[in-house]
TrEMBL record:
One of its GO terms (molecular function) is oxidoreductase activity. Keywords: Membrane, Transmembrane, Transmembrane helix. GO terms for cellular component: membrane. This is Cytochrome b N-terminal domain-containing protein. It comes from Candidatus Desulfolinea nitratireducens.
Length: 251
């Protein structure tokens, strides 16, 4: 058995996956934290206050999880949905009534979307309340504002896709409101609709924005946001010294 284990562990295939042996010393253990893309999010040492559930309420993490759920359920919905004014409405009805777990899939996508908007806003309120927008995190605050706009954009573009009365009139009203913006309103309205009123061109554009452009940008910018959290020294609470650290410094 040991021979087999040695053979596997020393093989080129194994070593191409795992470059180091077991982390059985402090240096290797901290290397795991600093070189692994998933663990890298957590600093090697953190202030106790920053990991208290009631400090961040985990709102940023919940928002990230909602994005992952939306991506997975959205890809599955794409298997059944064609963005055509002739079929879109019936595709959704078929998804809900004929496809196994179709209703669950649609509801998971819908509720996660509502929740993502809610938690992104609450996360912003939490960041403001704890003063985490201040130096050196002001850039990440701006990145966050872009994320919020993209999240709202994803919600808005998804609204048209069921192609029912609610969707049609909500987008008619929404794009008309955009049209009243004094400088670029009319241009934005025309670019979004692809014509004078909601029609096939609008559905194609909203679909493209909803399944490719906005999720792609969100993925890229959420990655930047999380990387900046790490580079800015973890959560702002880390800057408050632990009682024990203060005691050591004063001793
Ligand atoms: C798609 C939307 C967003 C996602 C997925 C997201 C994700 C996260 C995560 C996972 C964290 C670290 C843990 C936590 O604080 O819960 C974080 C921190 C942070 N976020 Fe967001 N965020 C989003 C939107 C925003 C918005 C709208 C703002 C503000 C305008 C913002 C500003 C910040 C700042 C400044 C930090 C550092 C907080 C600190 O040091 O205490 N984020 N974000």
């Amino acid at each position: 058995m040991k021979k087999l284990k040695d053979f596997i562990v020393n093989s080129r295939v194994w070593r191409s996956f795992f470059r180091h042996g077991w982390p059985d010393n402090p240096l290797d253990r901290s290397l795991i934290m600093t070189t692994n893309v998933f663990f890298h999010l957590h600093p090697v040492r953190v202030n106790k206050r920053s990991i208290k559930a009631l400090y961040s309420f985990g709102l940023g993490v919940i928002t990230t999880i909602m994005f992952v759920v939306l991506s997975i359920t959205g890809i599955l919905e794409m298997f059944y949905y064609v963005p055509s004014v002739d079929t879109a409405y019936f595709d959704i009805i078929t998804l809900q009534t004929q496809v196994p777990f179709g209703q669950l899939l649609r509801n998971m996508h819908r509720w996660s979307a509502h929740l993502m908007v809610l938690t992104a806003v609450l996360h912003m309120v939490r960041v403001f309340y704890t003063g985490a927008y201040k130096r050196p995190r002001e850039f990440n605050w701006v990145v966050g504002v872009v994320l919020l706009i993209l999240t709202l954009g994803a919600s808005f573009t998804g609204y048209l896709l069921p192609w029912d009365q609610l969707a049609f009139w909500a987008i008619t009203v929404g794009t008309s409101v955009a049209g009243y913006e004094p400088m670029f309103g009319k241009l934005i309205q025309k670019l979004l609709l692809g014509g004078a009123e909601v029609g096939q061109a609008s559905l194609t554009r909203f679909y493209g924005l909803h399944v490719m452009v906005i999720p792609g940008l969100l993925l890229l910018i959420i990655s930047l946001h999380l990387w900046r959290v790490r580079k800015d020294g973890g959560l702002a609470a880390n800057e408050v010294k632990d009682e024990i650290e203060t005691e050591v410094e004063n001793a």
